[in-house]
Amino acid sequence: MHKVQRLWLVAFFWLLGLLAVSAGGSSITFNYDCGIRELTAYDAQFPPASVYDGAAILTANECWHRPAEIRAPFIKFAEFLAADSGAFANYMRQAQTLDVSTAPNTAVFYSGPGNRALAEQFATANGGTTLEMTPGGAWLDQQQLFNTAQSGLTTEQAAQVWSTLSQRFAQGASGNAVGFVNGARAGSIFNTVEYPTLVNNPSIVNVITGGH
Fold first, then answer.
1. SS (H, E, C) 171-193
2. 103 CB-near residues (< 8 Å, 6+ apart)
3. For a FRET experiment, which of 8, 64, 91, 204 has its CA 20 to 30 Å from that of 50?
4. Secondary structure, 3-state, 162-173
5. In angstroms, what CA-CA distances link 60 with 6, 34, 38, 72, 139?
6. Cα within 13 Å of Cα(186), Cβ side
7. 72-108 core/surface letters (b: 16 or more CB in 10 A; e: else)
8. Is residue 53 within 8 Å of residue 66, measured between CB atoms?
C-alpha cells in the first residue's frame, strides 16, 4: 500500500472517530414508512427537534394504530421531541396531531374526584373510550406532564397541553357522549373546554352527564 493511501485511510478513520464523539457516540434513526409515507432519517443527537417539520411528526403519530413493533421507533422519536429544549412547543405539537379518535356513541368523559375510575369501568363494560384509552391519550398520560421535574413543563403548560388534546377528543366525538362529572370544578377542563366543544359539535346527539 502506498504511503499516500495509508495516510488517507488514517485521516478517514480519524474523521469517523471525531464524528462519533461529536454525536455522543450513538444516534437513533427513524426511517419507517409505516405503510403511509417514508420518513427521512432522524438523528437523536442532532439536528435539534425544531428542524423537524410538522408533516414528519404527523406521519409518526399516524403510526399509533399500527402493530407495537412498528410503533416502538416512533415512541422514541416522540420522547426525543419532548426532551428537546422546546418541551412545551413539542408537547403542544404532539397534542395537535395525536390520535384521539372514537367511534360513534363511544366517547366517555370524566372530571372530579374518583370519576376517572368510574368512567373507565363504564367504558370497558360498554365498549366506550375515555381520552386516556385512545392511542394518543394513552401516550400523553404516560408522559406524566404534571410531574414538572420530569416533563420540564409548568403546571399551567401541562394543563394547556391536556386542554388541547381534550378539545380535539370532544371535537371528534359523535352520537351520544357520556360524562362522569359529579363534583367537577367549575374551572375544570370538562366544564371549560370539553363540554362547550361537545355542545357546539354538530355530530353530537346527546351529552349524558352524571357520576354513577
1. HHCCEEEEEECCCCCCCCHHHHH
2. 129
3. 64
4. HHHHHHHHHHHC
5. 44, 8, 10, 10, 13
6. 0
7. ebbeebbebbbeeeebbebbbbbbbbbbbbbeebbbb
8. no
CA distances from 183 to 113, 115, 191 (A): 7, 9, 11
pLDDT digits (tens, 9 = 90+) for 31-57: 434 443 334 444 444 344 444 444 455
Interatomic CA distance for residues 57 and 98, integer angstroms: 10
Q: Could you give the CA distance from residue 25 to residue 113 in angstroms, rounded to a whole number?
A: 47
Tens of pLDDT, residue by residue over 166-211, are: 999 999 999 999 999 999 999 999 999 999 999 999 999 999 997 5
Query: What pLDDT does residue 31 have?
Result: 41
- Name the band, by pLDDT with cuts 50, 70 and 90, for residue 152: confident
Read off the C-alpha cell for 58.
Answer: 404527523
For residue 10, what is its C-alpha cell? Answer: 488514517
CA dihedral 53, 58, 60, 64 (to 10 degrees): 170
Hey, what amino acid is at 155? T
- How far apart, in whole angstroms, are the C-alpha atoms of residue 159 and residue 33? 32
Q: Which three cell numbers stand for residue 122?
A: 363504564
Q: What's the whole-number mean pLDDT along residues 72-86?
A: 56
